[in-house]
Amino acid sequence: RVVGLTLENLTEDTLTVSTSLQDMTVDETGSEQAPAGGPSPNSCAGWITGIPETVTLFPRQQHRIVATIAVPPQTAKGTYQGTLALSASTPRHPESPEFQTEAMIVVTVP
Q: Is the Cα torsion angle 3, 1, 38, 35 positive or negative in sign?
C-alpha cells in the first residue's frame, strides 16, 4: 500500500524537518506507549519505506512524501502500530526544534 503525506512550511524561515519511525503500542486505556525492552511484536514501523530522514522546506514550500507500507507475508491477523515523529528546526536554532509532532500509524491485517 502506498500512502502520501504533504509537509508545508507556512513560515518565512527555512525549516529542516527531521523524521523517525518508532515502535508504539496502545495500552488497554487507549494511551500510546513506547514499548519497553525492545521492539513491540505489534509494530509496523519496520514495514514502512520511503520516508526521508530529513527534508528542507523553504518559506511557503510544500513537499510530498510518498511511503510504502509492505506487510510481510504470513503476518498474523491483527492490529499493528507505529509512530512517525516529526520535528522542525530553523538555521537560527538548529539544535532546538521549533515544532514537534507525532502521527500514529495503524495497520489492520484482516
A: positive
